[in-house]
């Protein structure tokens, strides 16, 4: 499968930016301390993956990790997944969060649909963390015990996590928009002892009470000993409103433990820090366990080098607490920069909201999903004409491939001189495989580079590396932030089957990737949702990208249903703008865009208007489960309904299957 790339340069870092970058400082340090000289980023990357032990040891030393190594063993085991990083080292992730504390400086700047813009200083963050940590210790919470959160993207949630990490307990989080079943599916697996939860939240101007949800979750979690309610929807919430010996109020705990001091439990490098979850679209979510040390090294590298975060930065990424980007935002504190939170609908009351927020908070780094940028573009938002974005130096994009139209919109309508770095990674490593580099140019539709320490390649079906062709995204060498294990997967079978069932000893991620001869990367969507028509394989993102020029389309989903070895049925489901219908003229426009930008073989058999598309709680389209339903798989087997943001939308596709004239 080939992918023709039309090289289009959009931006280049100035010489001054390169010289002042953390990446350049790291390279100078390598030369001074190790005698290693690299002429450019790509040479540095080659060394980082060919000499992986030396590289990660250099990351430890360069960022001056506060921990004990005991010996110089960096990596034991040579083939994935049988490997262990720094097996005899001890440290604590949370201790590194507070290394660069500046008592009166803003640690967290925050705003929501309910809360006006405000700040939490480093002094306040440390004191609150100490109070909650002391409370947890008073309950007898030990290293390895699980503490969970059903809370919003607010500073209290970050405080609770840091308190948990400081004592070596294991953190896990669900956003409050998750339904009760989805929360139980995740938390029941890990048997938590304490839960932090908001009483409710506001989204799109509507308020959602969560006290009844909390009560139901408590009933289903027999191991739960205490619940802490954070008054968010109602700041005047009283103990009598949640009367229960096992339920406490957040503000009460801060007052009760206001004299506490913060200390840090030294734990193994591979001691669990948190449990993240697979999207859970085809079964119960898998608990992905990542360690203190692996996340610490990876996020220092990711933020400190790839994203060039400095103590003077204000780092923002629009996220919820149910997405790994929340964890990424928290780790921004490792660099000493201020992190910025927004809780609510980014499109409420319109898509100007976050750009106004960027102006008022003087953001230096603005991150969001590719779908949010494309929504702004389709609505005709022109931030540079309305807002002062002079502080903005970088824009980050992730969640799905940012199409060329998105790149163009950023440079045309947001800011001409801005570093746009698209990233691609996964919950599985809680980081990016590909991302930004302050030393490299930006080309339209392309991710700047493979991240340091990531032995990323595109493989063909025979397991051979390809350049300038589309193949399976694979990782050929271990990374410290790869899962230390899956929860309740004692023999490691689920872990091995998830990544190593196709190429033994090689991590197969499930995305289509093209590495260009210039070293940039392009993601073409999930490899298991690929459209193969007449021998021509194409990632679904290519088709969605082709539809970006069709202004009548708000969202789309395409699947290819096999009927026989020679024949398949490919419907395109579209959500249209209000008042728009599918006409012959619109069909022609859609088909022409696909014909010109993809191939004539990928013109859909049918274009179907739908009211909405099923999406996960993280806002991702579920192509594979819809494909299974249209192939006749019962919906209970095809999709975990509790993992969906809008579960009622599945009914349409079940009914659509019954009406299909073809026998699929």
TrEMBL record:
Might you give the EC number(s) for this enzyme? Answer: 6.2.1.16
Q: Which domain of life is it from?
A: Bacteria
Q: Name the Pfam families for this protein.
A: ACAS_N (PF16177), AMP-binding (PF00501), AMP-binding_C (PF13193)
UniProt KW keywords? ATP-binding, Ligase, Nucleotide-binding
GO biological process per UniProt: lipid metabolic process
Q: Which residues form the AMP-binding enzyme C-terminal domain?
A: 545-620
- Xref: PANTHER family: ACETOACETYL-COA SYNTHETASE
Protein's name in the database: Acetoacetate--CoA ligase
- Major enzyme class: ligase
| Domain AMP-dependent synthetase/ligase: from-to ranges | 100-479
Residue ranges spanning the membrane: these are none
Q: Where is the Acetyl-coenzyme A synthetase N-terminal domain?
A: 41-96
**UniProt record similarity statement:** Belongs to the ATP-dependent AMP-binding enzyme family.
GO MF term set: acetoacetate-CoA ligase activity; ATP binding
